[in-house]
Design brief:
The chain is of the alpha/beta class. Helix content is 56%, strand content 16%. It is built from nine helices and eight strands. The chain is elongated, with a radius of gyration of 36 Å.
Length: 275
């Protein structure tokens, strides 16, 4: 009887390894499938929980609203009363929009003299002005409200995009040749009558306070004034080259006085135009 040939040892070993690989692959497929199913189930459960929470919230809100209506016979008897009252809860719409621009910022520090940094002074004054204007129901838009760099084109775009009633850019002056010069100056675009009007109103009001020295209103070709399509002024609040005025400009108290004087001038100008 012919003996059956035995397979070589290396072939048997190869077959066993292949079978082991196939078995591992099957186990992995099963494991990943189970994980996918578990993940899907958990996602569905989470979605149901969220939906349930939203439903419960809306349910209790509805009950609270119904209870309020029942407690108020006027609202129950006259449909629409609640809606009308809700409209009156909103504040009156602001009559004017003013864009305030704190000059320089970020990598552009402006003039730096000892510990006085122009970009910081400009922003401090602008933030105080915003608070005072908003207290008078003026809508205020800032080109920047933190230490960040902005191109001149971007500042102009804000003013033009908001169609502001007035654009005010705040800066600090510097004159190296004569450190005795001091005082607030206001610039407007050459030939811009509205800009000139606001510059003069601001200076007149600041002078009346008796606490801030002002110089004069001047025409200028500054980019930020030439390219705005709305009334615009640039205010140099003081000279950092002057020792005494530099110390004042870094004082929070004096910054508050500057903001107060400038805001009063802005308000006087806006009201004068409206009248």
């Amino acid at each position: 009887m012919e003996q059956r040939r035995r397979q070589p040892v290396w072939k048997a070993e190869s077959r066993r390894k292949r079978e082991k690989r196939i078995a591992r692959l099957r186990r992995r497929i099963i494991a990943y499938t189970v994980r996918g199913i578990v993940a899907a189930v958990l996602a569905v459960m989470l979605l149901l929980m969220v939906c349930g929470c939203l439903y419960i919230r809306d349910f209790f809100r509805k009950d609270h609203k119904d209870a309020a209506l029942k407690a108020d016979p006027v609202r129950e008897a006259v449909p629409g009363v609640e809606e009308n009252k809700r409209d009156t809860d909103f504040p009156e719409q602001e009559k004017y929009t003013v864009v305030l621009d704190a000059g320089h910022g970020g990598e552009d520090g402006g003039t730096v003299e000892q510990t006085a940094m122009e970009k910081e002074i400009n922003l401090a004054v602008v933030l105080k002005m915003r608070e005072l204007l908003e207290n008078q129901d003026i809508r205020v838009v800032l080109t920047r409200e933190k230490d960040m760099f902005m191109k001149l084109e971007e500042r102009v775009q804000v003013a033009n995009g908001e169609k502001a009633d007035l654009f005010v850019s705040i800066h600090c002056n510097y004159y190296e040749k004569n450190s005795s010069i001091y005082g607030l100056e206001c610039y407007y675009c050459r030939g811009a009558e509205e800009g000139k009007y606001y510059a003069e109103r601001i200076l007149e009001t600041v002078e009346k306070s008796g606490e801030i020295v002002s110089r004069n209103a001047k025409p200028s070709g500054y980019y930020i004034l030439k390219n705005t399509t709305v009334p615009a002024v640039l205010v140099e609040v003081g000279y950092l080259s002057n020792y005494n005025e530099r110390n004042q400009l870094t004082s929070g108290e004096y910054q508050g006085k500057l903001a107060q004087g400038l805001v009063e001038g802005i308000l006087e100008g806006l009201e004068g135009k409206a009248g």
